[in-house]
Every structure is written in structure tokens, then in C-alpha cells.
Amino acid sequence: METTENLEKNLLHRRKLYKTILLDAILWILRIGFGFIFLFPLIWALSTSLKPLSEIVSAEIKLWINNPTLEHYKYVFSYRNAYRANAFIVAVINTSFLTGISMLTNLVFCTLAAYAFAKLRFKGHKALFKVFLSSMMIPGIITMVPTFVVIRVLNLWGSYWGVILPGATGVFNIFFMRQFFIGIPDELGESAALDGANELIICFRIYVPLVKPAIATMAVLCFQGGWNNFLMPYVVLPDRQLVLSTFIRTFPADNYAVSMAASMVATLPVLVLFIFFQKYFMNSITFSGIKE
């Protein structure tokens, strides 16, 4: 009798094991398949940037490279604009400056706003926060004209501030940080208040150190948004103040290899940053949705 029961248990265990292995295999196949689909544009751009023109304009479409070359990258790094300046270096400096200022303003202002919505019980804070959230449903194209009108009224056309101020804060960043502040007990701030600490000290010395992964994630998101920003620099800034996104547009439309090389160079910092902070990024995005 015991032998029969053991056989049944072993059989059941094997079936469960086979089902688990089969399910894992299917999931891995799906992951690899979707991963290849998402990576294919990046792989194609990298391949095109390393191909000579003779292979790019060939009637045969292929991903591999017969005669790889770095000439397109050399052309990008040495390209000079109409003012005889190295356009790539100018674009990197301008992009770094705008991205750094955008990150700084978002980290400070969004953190303060998120702390206020999460921990301060002022009159109408729930209704105001709902208004903030509802604004996320408004497409950016609708607010484009009013934004440009404000830039013109403030005489910021052709100035870096015309790009910085519209992106100084973000509703999503406020919502994202608020979710983390909600998860921290209010008693910590109340204890600090009893010791005489004001709200700024409570925010930056008590709560901010506890949400460092969220701040790191927001920094990555702000860096990505600022580094890839195209519309505002393209419309507001003059030609001599190119950023990397508008720098890519200066190349002829039919010169695919050079455009792809410039795109790969512009993509590299964001890609490297995301790889290093992927752990914090994924954990923070998951955690931000579990609090109401």
C-alpha cells in the first residue's frame, strides 16, 4: 500500500515538475521573442551606422555587415556648423546643460510638492491633487500653443529658459514621489516637529533619505526626458544652440548612415544609465502603484 502511494506521489510530483519546466520554457521563449522585437530597431540602427553606403543602398536587405566602417562616426564627431564650430561638441554641451538643470528643478520642486500632497493636510489638498492627476490626461499638443504664448510674453524666445521653465516640474514625477512618501509613517515627521524641526528640515532630513531609490529613479526619468527632448529646443532655440536631438536633424535625410551614427551616440548615455539603474527603476515603478 505504501509503495502504491509513493508511486502516485512521485508521479504527481513529476507532472508538476514537467508543467513547471514547460511553463518556464514557454515564458523564456516569449521573453526572448519580445526582447528581440524590441531590440531589433536598435540593432538595425547600429548595423546601419557601421555599413558603407554601398551596402545601405543595396537592393538586398540584410542585417549583417560585410565591410564595417567607422567613417560615419568620424563624420559626426568632426561635423562643423555654419558658424565653423564643432556642432557635436556644442550639442553635447547644450544638451548636458539643459538636462542637468531640468533634473535639478524636477528633483527639488517635485519632491517638495509630493511631500506636501502626502504629509501636509492643508485645505483642499485632495481636490488639488486630483486636478493635477487629471491634467495628465490632456495631450501635450493641446497645451503647446499656450506654452509658446507664455514664452513669447515672457520674452524667452531664443533663450535656454524658454526650454527649462516649461519642463521644470512634471505631474507624473509629483505623483511618483507622493506614492513613496505615503508609505513612510507620519510619526517620524511628528516626532521631528515636536523637537522643533520645520517642514523643510522634516522633508529633506527625515523623509528624503528614506526615498533615495525613488529619487534615483526620478533622476533617470528626468535625464531621459531632458536628453531626448526635441520639440522645445527645436522651436525655441536658434540654430547655433543645437542640442543632440536637433543636431541629428541637421544631416541630409537621405544620409541614413550618418543619421544612425549620430542617433547611436545620442542614445548611448541613456542606455548606459538605464542599465546601471535598472534595479532601482523597476522596483520603484512597481512600488509606486501599490499605495492609494
Automatic annotation (TrEMBL):
Gene Ontology CC entries for this record: plasma membrane
Coiled-coil region(s): none
Topology class, membrane: Multi-pass membrane protein
Transport keyword on record: yes
GO biological process, one term: transmembrane transport
Xref: InterPro entries: MetI-like (IPR000515), MetI-like_sf (IPR035906)
Record key words, sorted: Cell membrane, Membrane, Transmembrane, Transmembrane helix, Transport
Membership in a protein family: Belongs to the binding-protein-dependent transport system permease family.
Protein name, as recorded: Carbohydrate ABC transporter permease
Organism: Candidatus Scatousia excrementigallinarum
Taxonomic lineage of the native organism: Bacteria, Candidatus Scatousia
